[in-house]
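Aim 2 progress update. The chain analyzed this quarter is reproduced below.
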Amino acid sequence: MSELRELYQEVILDHGRNPRNCGAIEGANCSADGHNPLCGDRIRISVKTRDGVIDQVAFDGAGCAISTASASMMTEALRGKTVAEVQAIFEAFHELVTRDDEPGTPEGLPPKLVVFAGVREFPMRVKCATLAWHTLRAALERSDDTVSTEG
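Predicted structure tokens:
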């Protein structure tokens, strides 16, 4: 199992150092800001939807490796998904990182996101991993409030 854990750590470090879909989207039709005051992570998620489907999604900001990797991998996993599919994936991801040690992967979770299962062993890091996801949800709901992990 330690080889698998090392692979997962490598994937997270790679996305943390070389984030994908980082930057603003020209013509985005929804966006939101998020902040994790405990870690200092700040993020802006911008999304361009077309006919209820995520056409483009990107993030900008500064954060720890877990926060950045989560945002990067989230943007890769959600492009081309419907808003309803995104909601289901959000729920599965949230279950993955917050549930007690139950075996198996939550239904509907893209396999690449399983690398974040180890985060639940570090409760303070769960907020880093979920910040981008909560911010994306706020963007899709067109909320004007800044998402905070504290509150």
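Strands lie at 30-36, 41-50, 53-62, 147-148. The two ends are 36 Å apart (CA to CA). These observations will guide the mutagenesis experiments scheduled for the next reporting period.
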